[in-house]
Amino acid sequence: MNVPKLRRSVGAGAFASAALIVATACNAGVDHASPPVGAIQASQPAPAPGLRTVDNAQLGKLVTDEKGWVLYRFEQDKPNPPTSTCTGECATQWQPAAAVSDTQVQGVDQNLVGSVKRPDGTMQLTLNGMPLYHFAGDKNPGDTKGQGANRTWYAATPDGEKAGAPAQPKSASTENGSDGY
């Protein structure tokens, strides 16, 4: 009668050993110094969606998203009323910046932040009426590889204008339609 108990003990021991081997193999290559993804999310909330400004040595102050990715404007879009014209293949290279109801801003006038409904029904973030985009060619936060592309894409400034363009001073000659020369 002790034989069945012994078989159960041996069987239980073999099962425990197999479970330990499987658990060890499943954890191979896992960095145990890093907390699990869920723990990171619980202890460090993701930054609120928003707009920030950064200083760029060549272009001046630029607008980025909350993660530091530069946002661009498309010259074929219209600010009044806001109109987004980059669709289809264009929108795969120039991804529309998603609009959220509580966009946080830092260095950007909250009154200039808005949204526009895109042709596909999604909402896109605008700045001073101009729809904003991310460029797929930017590989790191702060990259400005889309600046000047096709002479229609420009990094956005905090007032929603295109970066790298000289400010146009208001003068009597420009206000009355003359070219100032």
What features would you describe in this structure?
The chain is α+β, with helices and mostly antiparallel strands and 181 residues long. It is built from 4 helices and 12 strands, in the order ααβββββαβββββββα. The strands form 5 sheets. It has a 3-stranded mixed beta sheet with strand order 2-1-7, with no helix packed on it. Strands 8-9-10 form a 3-stranded antiparallel beta sheet, with no helix packed on it.
- Number of helical segments? 4
> SSE string, helix = H, strand = E?
HHEEEEEHEEEEEEEH
Number of DSSP strand runs: 12
Q: What sort of overall outline do the alpha carbons produce when their principal axes are compared?
A: globular
Determine the fraction of residues in helical runs and give it as a percent range: 10-25%
User: In percent terms, what proportion of residues is strand?
Assistant: 15-25%
**Low-pLDDT regions:** 5-43, 168-181
How large is the radius of gyration?
27 Å
| Overall residue-averaged pLDDT value | 77
What structural class results from the helix and strand content? alpha+beta
Strand order, biggest sheet? 2-1-7
Largest sheet: 3 strands, mixed
Distance between the termini: 112 Å
